[in-house]
Automatic annotation (TrEMBL):
PANTHER family noted in UniProt: LEUCINE-RESPONSIVE REGULATORY PROTEIN (PTHR30154), TRANSCRIPTIONAL REGULATOR AZLB (PTHR30154:SF34)
UniProt keyword annotation of DNA-binding present: yes
Gene Ontology CC annotation, any one: cytosol
Organism, as annotated: Actinocatenispora rupis
Protein known as: AsnC family transcriptional regulator
PROSITE patterns membership: HTH_ASNC_2
UniProt keyword annotation of Transcription present: yes
InterPro entries reported for this sequence: AsnC-type_HTH_dom (IPR000485), Dimeric_a/b-barrel (IPR011008), Tscrpt_reg_AsnC-like (IPR019888), Tscrpt_reg_AsnC/Lrp_C (IPR019887), WH-like_DNA-bd_sf (IPR036388), WH_DNA-bd_sf (IPR036390)
Every HTH asnC-type domain range: 7-67
Length: 322
């Protein structure tokens, strides 16, 4: 079994399996990987204990009629870290990181209501003394991200193994999915532990187990909720995380976004309002790898301009690490 500082090929296969279906039973994963249930359970427990790996339930804002915003917040040098920590505590922030020498905060937020969004963007941020500039980009379309994380591109599993583990296809309705208080409560619980047993979810949500199963099935089937894998960069072997801000002609936006989605380095890519109008996050082994990616892979695409912003520290990723 892999030690606390390293992982082996079986660990990587397990991570790829959990990225494919975060709530797949260990017995199902074990059958696909050709090992015992106990081995899978033991490996997952070790990855959690030594590397903080967690499966977390997330809401897909586009499926429930909410809008996601990407914020670039310039701060005075003495305030950025503390401000980032404060943002990370908010329930409406999905990601918070420090870039540009530690004076810029990168934040992804998705308020439940327009009023809550306006309170943050137009009131609180504008009246925070040590925030010197606010640049807000509304996410228009996501090319890569959500349930598709880095391990989906790791090739640890064969295509046949991925197909055997993949959850049923989505059947999203034309209209936004309506979430009631119980749905919100379940998503909040899954945001702490996406593999929580139905029995535990039922007790916490004060619902019957059959009701919880029906709700979880509906949330997943409609795409309103999905399961993501919270993994530190040490397990990917890609230690340099970089924000990419690209300016692309409107006619090339779809093609460039689709191309980025296919790049192994890209863990997130979305079209946004503003200039730049395409935002991405790349994972690279080191500066030399980033240079090769920018010049040989990204360079040939019809991109007018690109700004790179290394992410020095992740303060919040899916959920604040404990």
């Amino acid at each position: 079994m892999a030690g606390s500082d390293t992982i082996d090929s079986l660990d990587r296969k397990l991570l790829h399996a959990l990225q494919t279906d975060g709530r797949a039973r260990f017995s199902r994963i074990a059958a696909v990987l050709g090992v015992s249930d106990q081995t899978v359970a033991r490996r997952y427990a070790s990855l959690r204990a030594h590397h903080g790996v967690r499966v977390l339930g997330q809401v897909d804002e586009t499926r429930v009629g909410r809008t996601r915003w990407i914020l670039r917040l310039s701060c005075t040098p003495d305030a950025a870290a503390g401000f980032a920590t404060a943002l990370a505590r908010r329930a409406d922030t999905r990601y918070v990181g420090l870039t540009s020498g530690g004076t810029e905060v990168l934040c992804v937020m998705a308020a439940r209501t327009p009023a809550a969004r306006d309170t943050l963007l137009l009131d609180k941020l504008q009246h925070t003394p040590r925030v010197t500039a606010v640049d807000a980009h509304c996410v228009l379309h996501t090319f890569y991200g959500g349930p598709s994380g880095w391990f989906s591109k790791s090739a640890a599993l064969t295509p046949e193994q991925v197909d055997a583990l993949a959850p049923p296809p989505l059947h999203p309705p034309d209209d936004p999915v309506s979430l009631d208080d119980v749905d919100e409560r379940l998503i909040d619980l899954l945001g702490r532990d996406g593999r929580a047993p139905v029995s535990a979810l039922a007790v916490a949500a004060e619902q019957s187990e059959s009701s919880v199963r029906r709700r979880l099935d509906r949330l997943r089937r409609t795409g309103a909720a999905y399961y993501d894998l919270d993994v530190g960069t040490e397990l990917t072997g890609q230690y340099l995380r970089v924000g990419l801000w690209l300016a692309v002609a409107p006619g090339d936006l779809a093609a460039v976004g689709a191309a980025l989605a296919g790049h192994k380095e890209i863990v997130f890519a979305a079209a946004t309002t503003g200039a730049p109008n395409l935002v991405a996050v790349a994972l690279c082994r080191d500066a030399a790898h980033l240079y090769r990616y920018l010049t040989a892979t990204l360079g040939p695409l019809p991109v007018r301009a690109v700004e790179t912003a290394p992410i020095l520290r992740e303060v919040k990723h899916l959920a604040t690490r404990r």
